[in-house]
TrEMBL record:
Name of the molecule in the record: ABC transporter ATP-binding protein
Domain (ABC transporter) ranges: 6-235
InterPro entries per UniProt: AAA+_ATPase (IPR003593), ABC_transporter-like_ATP-bd (IPR003439), P-loop_NTPase (IPR027417)
Domain of life: Bacteria
Keywords, comma-separated and alphabetical: ATP-binding, Nucleotide-binding
GO MF entries: ATP binding; ATP hydrolysis activity
Length: 240
């Protein structure tokens, strides 16, 4: 069996004369936590939209969960989870109602939704507040709930777009513990973040500059390559 969850070769996306993503190539192993870094406008979001089946590449090729990014974009959507940087749950519904709603959207049976609901509520220790509106939860709990719901259909890959934005360092650390747990069960995590210290938590890191991947390796190797003590310094040297 293929040991890669994501394979991309010469993937390019143009909007008229503007090239947003310029001939990028990389592979992500199954169960890997893969960090996708870059400044605003570097092409991260455009690349992620192609990988998640939301945008068709101009040229190049790639597979996600074994499906072709050009021909099988609808099939890709069934095998991935996605958590946007903007809070994606319905705040005017209760915790349990949100779980039930998204379980239905992902095509789970009523029995599966009941089982998944109890598992999520138990694991996140939300059973006592399951009847409360999501709006009443602290931001950190909202983010962890959104992450759990993104995996309710047992996807092969989870795409996380700035998942820890706006939460305090303690909650960020808790969230990364949840990411490690998901990866420990063989799930691939593809994560963008603007907190460069979080790159240290990833197995490997790709850094995009002006639509191109300018560096890709483990955090340790990147720091050695650029003679830098932190990933912040690696990033600064690349974007100068």
């Amino acid at each position: 069996m293929n040991s890669y969850s994501i394979e991309v070769e010469n993937l390019t996306k143009k909007f008229g004369e503007f090239t947003a993503v310029d001939n990028i190539s990389f592979k992500v192993a199954k169960g890997e936590i893969f960090g996708f870094l870059g400044a605003n406008g570097a092409g991260k979001t455009t690349a992620m939209r192609m990988l998640t089946g939301l945008s068709k590449p101009t040229s190049g090729q790639g597979t996600v969960a074994g499906f072709n990014v050009i021909r099988d974009h609808e099939k890709i959507k069934t095998r991935i989870g996605y958590m946007s940087q903007k809070f994606s749950l319905y705040e005017d519904l209760t915790v349990r109602q949100n779980i039930r709603l998204f379980g239905g959207i992902y095509g789970l049976s009523n029995q599966e939704i009941r089982e998944k609901s109890e598992t999520i509520l138990h694991d996140l220790r939300l059973s006592e507040v399951s009847s409360k509106l999501v709006a009443a939860l602290p931001l950190g709990w909202k983010q962890r709930l959104a992450f759990a719901i993104s995996m309710i259909h047992d996807p092969d890959i989870v795409f996380l777009d700035e998942p820890t934005g706006g939460v305090d360092p303690f909650v960020r650390r808790q969230f990364w513990e949840a990411i490690y747990e998901a990866a420990g069960h063989g799930r691939t995590i593809f994560v963008t973040t603007h907190y460069l210290d979080e790159a240290e938590y990833c197995d490997r890191v790709s850094i995009m500059v002006s639509g191109r991947i300018e560096a890709l390796d483990t955090p340790t190797n990147l720091k050695k390559q650029f003679n830098a003590s932190t990933m912040d310094n690696v990033f600064v040297k690349l974007v100068r």
